[in-house]
Specification:
Four copies of one chain form a homotetramer. Chain A is of the alpha/beta class. Chain A folds into two domains: 3-9 and 257-342, Aspartate Aminotransferase, domain 1 (Alpha-Beta Complex), CATH 3.90.1150; 15-254, Aspartate Aminotransferase, domain 2 (3-Layer(aba) Sandwich), CATH 3.40.640.10. In chain A, 42% of the residues lie in helices and 18% in strands. Chain A has 14 helices and twelve strands. Chain A has helices spanning 15-24, 36-49, 62-73, 87-90, 95-98, 115-127, 154-166, 178-183, 191-196, 227-233, 242-251, 256-277, 296-303, 331-345; strands spanning 3-4, 55-59, 78-83, 103-106, 136-143, 170-174, 200-204, 214-218, 289-295, 306-307, 309-313, 318-324. Chain A has a seven-stranded mixed β-sheet with strand order 2-8-7-6-5-3-4, sandwiched between helices. In chain A, helix 1 packs across helix 11, helix 6 (115-127) packs parallel to helix 7 (154-166) and helix 12 packs parallel to helix 14 (331-345). The two termini of chain A are 25 Å apart. Chains A and B meet through helix 1, helix 3 and helix 10 of A and helix 1, helix 3 and helix 10 of B.
Chain lengths: 346, 346, 346, 346
């Protein structure tokens, strides 16, 4: 079987996660979020976030979490601001619009939103005499790390959050790959800081060692009224909620979530070196996703032994390709890549 | 810990299901439904249904499956007909209305729809000169077995399906507990027959031995165009689709799905005998849900050792209570109930 | 041309209304609700309602007003309670569900909701442990007069409104035919009383002398935030808002709205006498809609000269038929009916 | 009172339109679109479009027509392509998203869409392996003339329509100001040509001499099934449909619609000359909307006697302002403007 760097969701669960599922399987429990492991996991996440009052809900996947949270926190007539490359704008089959909310786009700066763009847009909106004919901005959505592997600095998020508060917008941080962002060498804040600088965020499990599951955190206990009802209405309420609860219980025991992310980042940095040694251009990225410019010949050659995703055509000769690491990435995988790259050079 | 008959979703997965998750965990796979186990499970389900052309999709839960299928098969302006006690009408937090479709209700006959009611309603609708001011019926939704534990006969479903075809409505069968219906002694048809007598149905996994997962089956390959896109739009597409695929692969190997259901039914029938011996009135039910009339004193007494759900108040003295069996119900559980009932009688 | 009692919307506008449109036509004005006539009409309606703080918006039609108001006043996940015969449940093509809200039905008592039914339902809801799996009731919708021509007493509305306040639900009164209800001999309250006993209502123009237009009144200035934006989002904002403003300005000058209704009621009562004299059974109704039981032979005979609507089949021999008066009903129309009835008797 | 060039919807109806309302007011008619004037108007529009098979529906306003047509012609999961400056993307309070459809934006070229942009986007979409995670394009929406006063050539529309057909997308032309586009000196096609080069369009009445009303035309009788039901569901069905029918009957008698537009264009061209003579920069526009660059001092000066709208800030000193003509624009209005401009120059 070929080595695959296609994604961080084409492996099973981290061994400790799957083992916890196994060892708890025989025990009876409550359902719909009231099982004991969900309760424990909530408590551990509150501790990790230093948010003793946080409301925490476990949803199954990222698109579902985004659509549910956005629908819950917006008024019917409000829209959500995101950069053009934002996941909700591009890769969720219109799940946000499906509940009636417009995604209002701002320019993407390497996947990130700039607070100045945001402020200019809000200023123009409020100065516009036709504003009641426009979609009212109600929330800002950013991803951390971004879809392009970039990470915000504390100053950047702080700036965005300040604008949000000034204009009375909610700030929502999509953390589908949160662990990788926090483990990045560029990241100058930690989880408790993040939890203090937004209105809601989620801790992605699916891409960081779980089989499924995203932990939505309302840091100050600020979950919208009847949020559980809204989750159910979105088809996002697990009957056997233990499935998510047990996994997050494992992930937040002894810092597993963070060590999984750390290890994947280490592998990603080793991978960067391999490409650099091979003289292959890389986009800057300090997270587990690496974007590499390959010629058609290089692509063909590498694909013999190593799988990856094509991301975007650069020109007729070159393609931007994505190589992703995860908890499952091994030294053997990196060696396979190294070998593939070595034979290119000749 | 007390014995619980509260539901068929407060245990983990059947051992063979959880083991299959464990044994496949180390293997890499495709995602979003293209993993090898999903493919295998589809093939096994096609065989079990004798539907070689069936389109099969794995969703996470029942409400999600209902909302997604109904939205996908209806035109925007169409509604879905269900009995008043139907799950989509009562216990899904308005998930069907959330995508704009009205649930049009018919009387419930012990949880079942009667074809004559349906036909009368459709006849009246088509005779009504104001029909363009009304919601156009586009689909019939029934549950098998019903929320009240009753099961349709082949003749009853056949009659409903005939009416549907005559009026060009789709028939959708919610099989959240499908296994228990098929294993019921009252059931006079099998899975292949069912698959030939509706337009779409699903095989519930969550309540029949899995941790999560419902297999939506379009028997003749009649999935709506872009159904995968619609699944994604509903937040119902698993990135690590192996989670559902592996479980259904286990459930449809060596008839596990059917033996799980059979065993739970056997336990439920033993439970019936216990109540009957104790002189406690039971509603008729040949499935894994038993509805029992208890006095307040009886409830209080039994709850000391055995947990169950209250279903509906009958009068000030008596409550209808639900006792449910599953793959996890043991002889010991039944003995605990027996003991609790024995001590009542004195 | 045959005399028609088919509806109160198959004539043009009352002469004073159309004249006011003509005489104001040459004058320039603001748009989108800010024209001078809309402002004047608002002021006159505030006076008529004795609600100096009322927020008033002019929408085009009844279904539109219902869908917009309900969507504006409910949270996303809330539903609206109505009787089974309620217009929103039957004759609006699912416009309420189109914005995601379930219509939760209660029994109809000759078109009216009973406060006791309402209270029982709310009590049961709040006692239900599965309430987060159900649609949360957020509003009560009643029609005054009802679709069946009946009128609530002050005591009945007061009772309903008390239940609403106790359970924190909004009360919305659909007044598509409000004038006829207030002019009914059975009505024991006036417009200011009504305005004090609900959260929002509308004064129907289309069926009471205008070409189009419904005045939505939030009696205490309690319009939801950005209601104008919501109106626009529902496609209900008139660019040339003068069209509605001028008409309501006319209707609320010198009590025209009330005299139109009064006159139609007088004609309806004369019509009742004609049927009674002819020995034809009538349902009780003190409003401008009269429901008459006709045999097939009678229907055929009357239809030669006089048009009306069939409402419902009673049995194979008899049909319930609707005869409606309006500002345009003349003595000549009544004479035509009288003549038709006279010749039946022979 | 000051002269106003603020919009083409701040006057009443054209005299012939209001007179026709008056002269038909006394006559009884059918409702909900079946009145005789709606039937006549449909016939006249079919003739004017040379589309004998066309399905024609009269809706009340532009946003409503856009939202209803788009919702009716798209599958639930499909989106509509529009340029960034398109009315549906900017000034309809999210009415399209309200029924669940994403507005997918393309660059605006002076308000117009370029077929090459469209084709490139569709090509990229179909080449994208993640296409089932994206919103499926189902329709192209363009405005004629555009919000910025520009007009497409026949070649440009033909090119766009060809791309649409090749990729199986519907083409929808928003004609809120259709008359002005057809009357423009730049326009190289006529109404029948337009009707042959799209799937659906509407003939705007509100801004071209009516009080309200837009005639939605499906040129080949290709209205979606149950379109009337969809119109009702959107709250867009007039009970007294004569209101729209009578007005369009007048507008399509003796070419009134076209002469109204022609006259307004003539006035607009005279207005252009006035600005040019005054040395004030104008954006190119051959329609009834003129966009003028004014300094703050100029704005202040002109506003003493003449009203207009500000459109966009150019810099701290200058603002782009909109001056609009309509059927009601008189020589006296132009003289007032001339006088205001004359006194600037000194």
């Amino acid at each position: 079987m070929k080595t695959s760097f296609e994604s961080d969701y084409n492996n099973g669960a981290h061994p400790e996660v799957i083992c916890h599922l196994l060892e708890t399987n025989g025990k009876q429990s409550q359902s719909y979020g009231f099982d004991e492991w969900s309760e424990q996991a909530r408590q551990k996440i509150r501790t990790a976030c230093q948010c003793p009052e946080a409301d925490i809900f476990f949803l199954v996947g990222g698109t579902q979490a985004n659509a549910t949270v956005i629908d819950a926190m917006l008024q019917t007539y409000e829209g959500v601001l995101a950069v053009e490359t934002g996941h909700i704008n591009v890769h969720e089959s219109g799940a946000v619009e499906a509940s009636g909310h417009k995604v209002i786009t701002l320019p993407s700066h390497d996947g990130k939103m700039e607070a100045n763009d945001l402020e200019a847009r809000l200023k123009a909106f409020h100065a516009d005499p036709t504003l009641e004919h426009m979609v009212i901005p109600g929330m800002v959505y950013i991803t951390f790390p971004t879809e392009l592997g970039s990470v915000y600095s504390a100053a950047e998020i702080d700036h965005i959050y300040n604008v949000c508060r000034r204009y009375e917008l909610k700030l929502f941080i999509d953390g589908a790959r949160l662990g990788y962002g926090l483990a990045s060498s560029e990241c100058d804040f930690d989880l408790p800081w993040l939890a203090r600088h937004c209105d809601v965020f989620y801790i992605g499990g699916t891409k960081v060692g779980a089989l499924c599951g995203e932990a939505v955190v309302f840091p100050t206990g600020n979950a919208p009224r009847h949020f559980m009802n809204i989750v159910k209405r979105h088809g996002a309420l697990l009957a056997k909620s233990r499935l998510a609860g047990v996994q997050f219980d494992a992930l937040f025991t002894d810092g597993l979530y963070f060590s999984i992310a750390k290890q994947a980042i280490d592998k990603a940095m080793q991978m960067r070196s391999l490409f650099q040694e091979a003289g292959i251009p890389l986009r800057p990225s300090s997270t587990n996703q690496q974007f590499v410019e390959l010629t058609n010949a290089q692509m063909k050659h590498i694909l013999r032994d190593v799988l990856f995703e094509t991301w975007a055509l650069i020109d007729e000769e070159r393609t931007l390709c994505r190589f992703v690491t995860s908890w499952a990435t091994t030294d053997r995988d990196l060696n396979a890549l190294k070998e593939a790259l070595r034979t290119i050079k000749k």
